[in-house]
Amino acid sequence: MLHLAARITAQRPGSHVLLTTATPAPPARRLADNVSWAPTPSEHPADCEAFLAHWRPDICLWSHGRLRPSLIHASDRAGVPLVLLDAAEAGFEDPNVRWLPDLARGTVGRFNSAHAISANAARRLRRLGVSENDLRLTGPLQDSSAPPDCNEEDLERVSGILGGRPVWLAAMAQPDEMPCLIEAHRAALRHAHRLLMIVVPDDVDDTPRFVEALADSAMMTARWSTGEMPEENIQILLADTHGEIGLWYRLAPVTLMASSLTPSHGGRNPYEPAALGSAVLHGPNVKRHADAYERLSGAGAARMVRDATQLSNALARLIAPDQAALMAHAAWELVSEGAEVTDLVTDLVLDLLDMAGTP
Predict the structure, then answer these.
(1) How far, in Å, CA of 92 to CA of 123, rounded?
(2) Contact status, residue 204 vs residue 173, Cβ threshold 8 Å
(3) Any idea what DSSP says for residue 237?
(4) Distance (Å, rounded) from C-alpha 339 to C-alpha 141?
(5) Given 3-state DSSP classes, what are the helix, strand and coil percentages for the chain, each rounded to the nearest 5?
(6) Residue 311 maps to a domain
(7) Angstrom distance (rounded) from CA 303 to CA 65
């Protein structure tokens, strides 16, 4: 939803998006200036009226399900167009939907359009009274953000130095993952002695701990921040700078999305390397982006590894260009489908704003 907000505000300068949550939740780590975060009001009619009077929305996008009848009916009375996105079957399993079917039908019927993520979800919406004209089976809305840019001169220069060497990337790594990464790389070198591992810290402030771990490994290393290059004798490159992840995704046909091998980090977004043609590996701790990894895995575009042995085995297999290419192509197709859904919803929102005469 944050990505969708960014797309809408980029195409409609001066607009503002209010992102609400059904239950108390902390705000996202980084919010754009034109995006606000707030909880939804209670279901008391007076609270809903006050909420709408304060924010005066021009359109409401409702994600997943878990409908709030008072807020939806109040929005409809206020003339706010309502769009249901990512409608999932699980979003309509509330006991109120079963025991108060008339209320559920009256609520769902307030939406101008409904977008289901699956055939089962679409059937559930039809039973609740959504007309065929207002229902679309679009698949899930995904984080299909534009892949990060890179410095083309750096890309050309490093590509020339590598000269076709096999490369894998450990992106958004944590210091406590380094023993696993080093052990896996050491084992993978037995299959491909020229293999290069690029390590990008999740937080560059942790660089001293990465440097210490690499020194203890006794492997040949280089640091990008000091101007060192991955020459032929270098086995590990520490990419310890801000804002250059797009360069490393483009150079590595295989990416381990780290912050996932050890607990408490939650994983990181896998769609960026997928969009840039990199096969995706990840650890078991990806709670923050579980849906994304499930979708990629279901498409054959991602693979989970639990330890250094599984990681080295996966690397040994994916070093073969054809194997990495199969996963990378599956990932690119899935991300492209997500982008199509985002484009469709963005166009719909802009059309509704135009119809409402919103500047």
Answers:
(1) 11
(2) no
(3) E
(4) 8
(5) 50, 15, 35
(6) yes
(7) 30
* DSSP H or E run through 201: strand 196-201
Assigned domain for 15 exists: yes
Higher local confidence (pLDDT), 114 or 213: 213
Among 40-44, 49-53, 191-195, whose mean pLDDT is lowest? 40-44
Place of tokens 């390590």: 199
How many structural domains are present in the chain?
2
Q: 147 lies in a domain?
A: no
Angle at 259 between CA 254 and CA 261, to 5 degrees: 80
pLDDT digits (tens, 9 = 90+) for 273-327: 988 888 999 999 999 888 889 888 988 989 999 999 999 999 999 988 888 888 8
pLDDT digits (tens, 9 = 90+) for 153-181: 999 999 999 998 999 999 999 999 999 99
Q: Which residues have a Cβ under 8 Å from the Cβ of 107 and sit 6 or more positions away? A: 67, 69, 72, 73
State the residue for tokens 């929305």: 57
Residues 278 and 341 in one domain: no
Continuous segment of H or E residues that includes residue 116: strand 113-116
- Distance, in Å, from the CA atom of 247 to the CA atom of 66, rounded to the nearest integer, reads 41
Domain that holds residue 8: 2-142+337-355
Q: Is the CB of residue 60 less than 8 Å from the CB of residue 81?
A: yes
- Residue type present at position 54: H
How deeply is 255 buried, as exposed, middle or buried, from its count of CB atoms within 10 A (0-12, 13-18, 19+)?
A: buried
Separation between Cα atoms, residue 143 and residue 271, nearest integer Å: 7
Virtual CA dihedral for 281, 287, 292, 297, nearest 10 degrees? 50
Question: What end-to-end distance do the CA atoms of the chain give, in Å?
Answer: 22
As a residue count, the chain comes to: 359
Distance of alpha carbon 3 from alpha carbon 343, whole angstroms: 11
Give, to the nearest 10 degrees, the angle between helix 308-318 and helix 321-355. Answer: 90
167 vs 5: CA distance, rounded Å: 35
Residue 198 bridge partners (DSSP): 169, 237
